[in-house]
Amino acid sequence: xxxxxxxxxxxxxxxxxxxxxxxxxxxxxxxxxxxxxxxxxxxxxxxxxxxxxxxxxxxxxxxxxxxxxxxxxxxxxxxxxxxxxxxxxxxxxxxxxxxxxxxxxxxxxxxxxxxxxxxxxxxxxxxxxxxxxxxxxxxxxxxxxxxxxxxxxxxxxxxxxxxxxxxxxxxxxxxxxxxxxxxxxxxxxxxxxxxxxxxxxxxxxxxxxxxxxxxxxxxxxxxxxxxxxxxxxxxxxxxxxxxxxxxxxxxxxxxxxxxxxxxxxxxxxxxxxxxxxxxxxxxxxxxxxxxxxxxxxxxxxxxxxxxxxxxxxxxxxxxxxxxxxxxxxxxxxxxxxxxxxxxxxxxxxxxxxxxxxxxxxxxxxxxx
Length: 368
Hints:
This protein is of the alpha+beta class. The protein has helices at residues 5-32, 98-127, 146-150, 169-177, 223-250, 255-258, 262-275, 280-295, 303-316, 322-350; strands at 37-53, 56-71, 129-141, 157-161, 164-165, 184-190, 193-199, 209-218.
């Protein structure tokens, strides 16, 4: 699929908004406790643009690997505009009670979960609730393929294979594979008519077309239905993503191969946008929850790592020596940044439309 400027732009915008929401959680939690915030940043590294809002410098940076809120603890030698240079002890986050620091550190994750819920609610209200069934359509037909020979056209909607209907795309694939090399009737909806074509899947059980897969939906029946359905969907998405992350860490040898960075995310969002712009809402929900889960990982430089430090402090009755904690955080930051850069480089050579060809086995919309 050829990349589209509008799809890339919308995906970058969605990703930027979700990062901003995460950092807004930290920012608002700190402000609720009268803790000054020196910087509110999207991205890392040198500044592209920014402005001063009271004591906070709001900035957009060059390296698109997340964002951060910087407190007085992070820049003790630099004066804060609008705040006295001789800050009282309570202005420093590290001097606050543990429960306040937990709130500031975890608020970004909370905001991502809450925003995902509201986006999902808006999607259910505006588009309807997914029923669990999938409609499979034809986006493009490969030349000289079994689909082309059968007369399949872009815009067709597949209804049945050899007289058997299907509710999910995987069922459709299984039916094709069960009839490799056999001429079978394939029913499609073309406009207002139902057309039955004769197609012969190849030796791999493929017809040779690019599918569009859409979840079928039903309208909500009321407020209670909206809340129940949204809660259930968010729970299922969270469990699915957490399970995928667990399986990823269970096979560390394949982690780099199976993990995508910012370039892969933008490419996937562009593909979603081209299939149906409204599906970016669901994509944003998945990204927001995934952002929350990843930030909960007990790794230095992530929110989960800071929570681990706070847990150790609660158990020990005193914090770790500041020099040790700073070394661990710097090492964790460099590790996360290094991983992010490595993923960007990898994506440039593996994501379709970049410098290298896609791997057919993992392409999101490979021909069928």
